[in-house]
Amino acid sequence: MNPTRVFTGCLLAALCAMVPVAVASEPAPATASAREVVDSLEQALIESMKQGPSLTLAQRKEQLAPVIDRALDFSRMARFIFGANWREMSEADRTAFLEAFRELSVTTYAARFDVHKGERFDPASEAAQGGERILVRSRFTKGGGDKVAFDYLMMRSGGEWRIVNILTDGISDLALKRSQYGGLYGREGMAAVLANIGNQTRRLHEE
Hints:
Layout: H1 3-16, H2 34-51, H3 57-71, H4 74-82, H5 84-88, H6 91-112, E1 120-128, E2 133-141, E3 147-157, E4 160-168, E5 171-172, H7 173-188, H8 190-206
Antiparallel strand pairs: 1-2, 2-3, 3-4, 4-5
Helix pairs in contact: 2-3, 3-6, 4-7, 6-8, 7-8
């Protein structure tokens, strides 16, 4: 049995049990399919890479932020990262985490997709995981020809398709964040989580 499929199924069950929490972001167009949401994000990343040498990190962030806000469901991700602890947090802690998490995400995309050397995204497949869930598979070809598998787990949020997890060559980004941030929160609290995220963001700006 494919371990990626097993993990994805477990993750879907956990995510589906969560009640969405509102987060300020620009909604995707009503007509956007799951595939179109992914395409929009990937096209924006390639364009950012092509413009990379002529733009600062801050400028790339400004260009990418609206697309990332439309594509990613930060609120649902946060609920999975912290599990039951999310419900017990103060509104101030939840808001602070969402703001810091979004800032790190936008900065990471802007910092990592900064130079174009022939890279491209190619659509691979799309598989329904139930009426409100879809797994969109894409392949990223590096300039040297190596390929990286990107699998986007998507769910409906307010009637729109949003990305709730990205698996890179079978490795779940959300599972890693749950281990990192959820574990740190359990040991040291939200202040430690925010300090950790802040340090990551600052390092990206300094690279």
